[in-house]
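Lab meeting notes turned into a lecture example. A postdoc, R.K., suggested we walk through two folding results consecutively so the class can see how the record format repeats. The first protein's sequence and structure tokens come next.
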Amino acid sequence: MSNGPADSRLSISCWDLCELSEDDLNTWDIAALNLAAARGLPGLDTVDVAACLDKLDGWAQRVKDETLRHIYRFDPQSSQPPTEYTYGNSFGRFSCYYMLQVLQQDCGVVYNPARKFDPDFGDPADVFVHGILDGNGQGGTCASMPIVYVAVGRRLGYPVNLVQTKEHLFFRWEDPRGTVIQWDHPKMEFWIPPDRFNVEGAGEGIAFYPDSHYIQWPHLWKEADFEHRRYLRSLSTKEELADFLVQRGECQWELGQQEASLQAYYYARQLAPDDSRYERLHAMRSGQCEHRRELERQRLLEINELNRRAPQYQQPKPVTPAFRTVKIAYGTPYPTDLPPGTTVQYVPPEEADVTLPRPGQTLKVAAGRPLPRNLPPGIGIQVVEPHLADPLPPENDPLLPPPPPTQMPTAGVDAHLERVKRIQQQNMRLLAEQEAYRTLRPS
């Protein structure tokens, strides 16, 4: 299979690939599609895509050479049928067996040991083929190793396809008519009889498990897994790309790129519109994104409310002594936070009282002058040139004598106390008269 146009396979985005027809997609190598689906994820900017695809070409030649070198081991006249772990008299299984053996033992296509018991969908190198192919290859997983096998197998002319089961990928040899294999270097042609079998190589060793094995492994199917009818089917090229986009979306989700992941799920649905799994996944992730956005909105509202209530953001009350007259310039709104007993007089602007800065602001004091007195808390002090200093109210100016202490007027209070005293005396006289009347009244 072709790798696609040389210039396109290195630069085309996965979103542009989704717009191609199925016939055009069929001309693309599965590894090139996989790397295109991963483009833009963390770690992909340093991956040489052309070198990765060239490495697959070299591995395919290595597999071809080793298969021919060991072809004497296959006996087409053997009466031994194939089993789950042996190829028997199936030349297709013999070809896949030696392909996986060469890739695993000679080319280093192995399972990442760090992910055997700790899967991490947030690391693109674990789910896309560059984790196996690039110079710093760390190994793959069941999400990437079968893709390498299929990419190499198709370069050799093998009729192999990806197959999905629950949370797992493997590949299948499927050819009901027989396959004619034509190789160059060395040039040869041979025919492989019709065959159909599964190949498991995403782990340690090689196996040919039947379909029934994957109903129970690696996860037991539930009723819903039977109903959607998407497992144990050989994937088309569009379905392969849809699977890669879902893997991209899951990577982005784990990396905290939730909004970007929705685009991958959307295009996966467009490529496989009949796949209810992708529809449910897209709906679930969209709901989770909406929930996260709502939580973030609520959090911002709470922060704004806390900031609004914080002392430094509240409108401070002016420091004004009680029972004094405050002179306010014409046109100024009437203050609502004056102490009791304070009167307001509207005057021209030049006659209005000088006021201090609000708490949280800075008062500019002339250099060489004493600090102001009786400053309320929260006002900062900045020493400046005399001509830049702020004016001070008299009660705060340290160069003026302090004003006499403000005393509450006593005239009204004394009159009120005198009235209360008179009422108490009248009540005492009335009580005495009532007591004398009860004593003198005949019984």
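The second example is placed directly after the first for contrast:
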Amino acid sequence: MKKLIVSAAAFAVVAFSAVAMAPTSALANSAFARQTGQACSACHFQSIPRLNDFGRKFRINAFRDTGTQGLIEDEGLSLPASFNAGLNMMLAISNGKYEYNGVEEFGGGIFFLEDIPPAPAVGRIHSNTAVAWPTDAELVVGGRYGDNFGGVTTIGLIQGHTGLEHYKLAFVYDTEMGPVAIAGGSTTSRGVPYLLNDPSNVFGNNLAGWGWQSVALGVDSTWNGTNAGVNSGGATALGLYTHLNGMAYLALGGVIPAAINNGMAVNFKLSPYVRAAFTGAVAGFDVVAGGWYYANKLGDYNSALLGVSNQTATQYGVDLQVQGAVNGVSIGFYLPWQIKGEDWTQATATTDNDVTGLYPMLTVASGHFGARLGYDYATIEFKGTATPKEKVKTWVVGAWYDVAQNVVVNLEYDNSKWDDGALGNTDKHSAITAAVEYVY
């Protein structure tokens, strides 16, 4: 049997970092803490779910390290002696409003998209505050499944989000140059990089604000919260990946978008996904820099809807992550740049929508406190038409305080503006949200 993929001693030398929770289905997993016997800060940089170098290697190696936890072993069997699971719970209150051409339509802060109330009637007392208690609750099970197997399963526990939400499994063959893995699974919102254990923190929900998900990275051409983007939307995928010499991550996969009947497709071509990234230390900083390419083969799925067949929605871009410390202050910089993001799911028979943009974010942390500043900028082009481009601009300003490594208070202000180039209309959304997350 191959021994520990990453030694328990390596866990101990990882410095403590402040912990905060990302919104919309957090990626925290106390099952890993139980399996390894180590604190959450051993793998995470500043705030969960962002990973440091050690946590990145743990994930790429399919969560197989057991630290000091005992194993049940026999021929063809190597399981942790304990059943490792965790419970995530999030509570939030949000105050905000949505305006259309200066007229308030409805409120509810960040939650209005999930359950849009009617526009307030004249003279009606209207509240812009919404409370979600809880806004998220998950049972997370995962870790080591065997000598060469590891994975994670997430089960939603609140109304409207019950049942299987995310699952992934990887079979890893260990070589002298690094792991080579066959991986696959399905997710409702975290994108293909999550399923293929990508090393970067710029994808999935890692940079999501409490308000809008990134329009640019989500390839959301209608500003309705849907994610057609390969990096942050729902998908089912199967692929190969490797991490050569701890420096080069390469992945190749076949994808079925979430829109295709939750991954159960008939007469549907697998959509190719290619990813390459450098990982390593540069001038004392932890750097991940790479790019991706995705060709969504819509095949016969949209033939009746669009009157076309065998259409391909192409998406590609580059990304940069820089993490480190300056004079004892922890600093992180993240930049995903969607160079091309076709969204045929919102198109007509003769045109497609092309979403491009970038989402830089800066995070700073010291001790128990941390802050973040992000700016999501996207343009939407309606190809084949005379419709002017639309622009979406979103500011995200937030702060957190970690009461404990597994109990976090989070405060964030979001301000979004959508300029409709065709009609001259302007949509605005702003919200301030306070949340508490507990991970057990």
